[in-house]
Amino acid sequence: MTGSSSTASGLRVTAETGRGSGVGGTFPTGFLWGAATSAYQIEGAALADGRGPSIWDTFSHTPGRTLAGETGDVAADHYRRYREDVALMAELGLQAYRFSISWPRVQPDGSGGVNQRGLDFYRRLADELLEHGIQPWPTLYHWDLPQPLEDAGGWPVRDTAGRFAEYALLVHEAIGDRVESWATLNEPWCSAFLGYASGEHAPGRQEPAAAVRAAHHLLLGHGMAARGLREAGARRVGIILNLYPVEPASPSDADADAARRIDGLHNRFFLDAVLRGHYPDDVVEDLNAVSDHAHVREGDLPLISTPLDMVGVNYYSSHVVAGPDGAAAPATHSPLVGGASPYPGSETVRFASRDYPVTAMGWEIDGPGLTELLGRLGREYPAIPLYITENGAAFEDAWLDGRGVVDTDRVTYIETHLRACREAIAAGVPVRGYFVWSLLDNFEWAWGYSRRFGVVYVDYETQRRVPKLSARWYAGVIRRNGLPGGSGE
């Protein structure tokens, strides 16, 4: 594994930098406003038109893996209702729609034959978006690996990276004339470490060494796909990472080391590989406890660091961590008991809570943390356009007769984070767009349908869609290209 002398500097910016200073106003001309979804969470139609099974089909149909045993078989039925959904997007004034391509819908075996009926769906979706003046922003992988590839070993096997690159070119060939902006992977940290280390996500394996291999092969697949897409004429190519500010719970050496470790494996491992062409030395050393790194071959890192046109940032919260003796709890990303640590080599790190408001997911709300994160990216990494590709919150939405869903908490959450973006832009960080998560209420992975992130309410019994207050508020933000003077309209 190639290393470097990267450190955990800039873990947290101090209050003197202007946390919560209230910068607001309009956004730069050309700032892109959108919403995001993912295939398995909204499409449904699990057996329609030749789609094959993914690891999430298998996982969700396995007893005890998801809350109440719920699956994405139907989800929000977007596969059949996409025209209605695009019309809603147009009504809200969305300028771009970030969606993911279902790999098993396009290539059921993960290699070989192409399912043209699956590709036809994405052709129709892209055409419908363009007819309404909305830019299609496809993400090629949002966690739904074709089950036959998992049966052959999954992401811990190097061959999967090559299969992904081939699949990326198949999709580009089909809709490349309709798409200007491509993302290869969504949140490879989750795919690798929640899928193969903690087992809280599909495929549900608890094999730390395999998770480390998976992380590298995901990035290798990204690099191979990025290079192939560019050679095929793709105009704009990027990757989407879920990033978190990380802060020690106390000034102790143990807590500082815990922060270094989590920042290293969650943030710097991916950022340094993609943007600097190496893995951080300290993270490599941390991972020596579970991996000999023999899977990293000469030439891999230059491929992984193929130049990009953008980086997508998914931001929901920040972390405070403690050493093994700290008064805190292990990390968990699932409502179900039994997950191992998603941090190989740093299993003893504990996660602390603060006196911050939390969402229905139990995630602390830290809007100024986004300003800090974006500032760090601007300072420490090569200049590259940044897009907030996911930001949103689940709350206990209540349906009020005659009023629908009056989700003022979500409005406040989004506004707080948009002000954080505006503050970063004012400081010179090249933030070029914002995609709210999510357009629709959907299947929330291991949480099933118990958590709602959408700005549009979905009645799962009837599939009726109703924009929430947050959708109408967001439409106003898009219309004025800026925030209102107060906390709402």
UniProtKB/TrEMBL annotation:
What is a biological process (GO) this protein takes part in?
cellulose catabolic process
Recorded GO molecular functions are: beta-glucosidase activity
Keyword Hydrolase, does the record have it? yes
Task: Supply the EC number(s).
Answer: 3.2.1.21
Q: Name one Pfam family in it.
A: Glyco_hydro_1
Q: Which domain of life is it from?
A: Bacteria
List the InterPro entries.
GH, GH_1_N_CS, Glyco_hydro_1, Glyco_hydro_1_AS, Glyco_hydro_1_beta-glucosidase
**Positions with a binding annotation for substrate:** Q41, H142, N186, Y316, W437, E444, W445
A GO cellular component entry from the record: cytosol
Q: Which EC class, in a word? A: hydrolase
What reaction does this enzyme carry out catalytically?
Hydrolysis of terminal, non-reducing beta-D-glucosyl residues with release of beta-D-glucose
Q: Which UniProt keywords apply?
A: Carbohydrate metabolism, Cellulose degradation, Glycosidase, Hydrolase, Polysaccharide degradation
Which residues are named in the active-site annotation? E187 (proton donor), E390 (nucleophile)
Q: Sorted alphabetically, which NCBIfam families does this protein's record hold?
A: BGL
Entry similarity comment: Belongs to the glycosyl hydrolase 1 family.
| Name of the protein | Beta-glucosidase
